[in-house]
DNA sequence: GTTATCCGGACTACCACAGTCCTGATTGGA
DNA sequence: TCCAATCAGGACTGTGGTAGTCCGGATAAC
């Protein structure tokens, strides 16, 4: 649950990659470095540019560049850029269409505090935090251990 | 984004409704009271029963009953019951399949702190909290106003 | 002028969810 | 004992959104 689009995941990877290099970088270059398909990288970068997280330079020798430091990019911004405003869908204050059973539904708009809590939580974590937590130990294939046949 | 399934929304409504009555209540009864289609209510209740949030009584005069008070049900439990474990999908520690580009992806498992933050945020809000925020003003049929034929 | 790159959009295939329905098991009452 | 009401559990289908690709155009360096 709380489906986070795969593109957002890619976006984080791409942004981290951007931070590691000087000057602009091209989509194909990032694609090669990250293993993400080229068209998808391009799509992500375009979206990030629209969200003002990266800036682009067109033409030959063009490419993309980070707009701010990783430590100044809360994960909430990335999610908002890729997936749109952060809010649990359905029956949220913003959805002015209203649920069909508006008169009866007693919880109308009551998700707001929840949305708020999530938004706060996501605003408190920056990409730098995520990058910092990176440990080689994570490469251990945990699922193998979990798959040990208990019975038999 | 952060898609929360509609069923979860229904679940909250249903649970709140359950809390307001004594004894057991039937699916049709709740459906009538909330305006949610009967089969859907039944589905939600079955799922909630599986998640141990409500208990059921079969047979004639059967129905559902809350297992604990609203104030003892964090919204996280409801979400977990309906949508499964709370975690942003893709590239999470649990996803033992691993991303295709495991060797390259530098963010492997780095979503965990984010998941944790979200989980904490959701665990801190109970259904009672959501219910408490309820204001009568919300009953105003906003959509009616929005539907006023501006042209002609 | 040519080439490399980004820009913006359209387009398609796929998958998960929403919602419905059906068959069976259980229980209370006639 | 039989019947009716209710939950249990699953199968099924339509819809919507996402992932991923591709194309024509604009821009800038060489």
Explain this structure.
2 copies of one chain form a homodimer. Chain A is mainly alpha-helical and 152 residues long. Chain A has a single domain (6-130), classed as Winged helix-like DNA-binding domain superfamily/Winged helix DNA-binding domain (Arc Repressor Mutant, subunit A, Orthogonal Bundle), CATH 1.10.10. Chain A is built from 7 helices and 2 strands. Chain A has helices at residues 6-19, 27-34, 38-50, 75-83, 112-123, 127-132, 142-146; strands at 54-57, 63-66. In chain A, strands 1-2 form a two-stranded antiparallel ribbon. Chain A is elongated and about 50 Å long. Mean pLDDT of chain A is 75; it is low at 90-104 and 134-152. The interface between A and B is large, with 66 and 65 residues. Chain A binds a DNA duplex (30 and 30 nucleotides) through helix 3.
């Amino acid at each position: 649950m709380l489906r986070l689009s795969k593109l957002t995941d890619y976006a984080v990877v791409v942004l981290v990659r951007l931070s590691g290099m000087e000057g602009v970088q091209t989509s194909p270059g990032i694609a090669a470095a990250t293993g993400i398909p080229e068209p998808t990288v391009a799509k992500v970068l375009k979206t990030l540019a629209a969200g003002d997280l990266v800036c682009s330079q067109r033409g030959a020798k063009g490419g993309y560049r980070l707009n701010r430091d990783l430590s100044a990019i809360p994960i909430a911004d990335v999610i908002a850029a890729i997936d749109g405003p952060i809010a649990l869908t359905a029956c949220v204050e913003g959805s002015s269409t209203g649920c069909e059973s508006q008169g009866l539904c007693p919880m109308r708009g009551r998700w707001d505090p929840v949305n708020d809590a999530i938004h706060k939580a996501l605003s408190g974590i920056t990409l730098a935090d995520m990058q910092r937590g990176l440990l080689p130990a994570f490469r251990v294939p945990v699922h193998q251990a979990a798959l040990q046949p208990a019975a038999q």
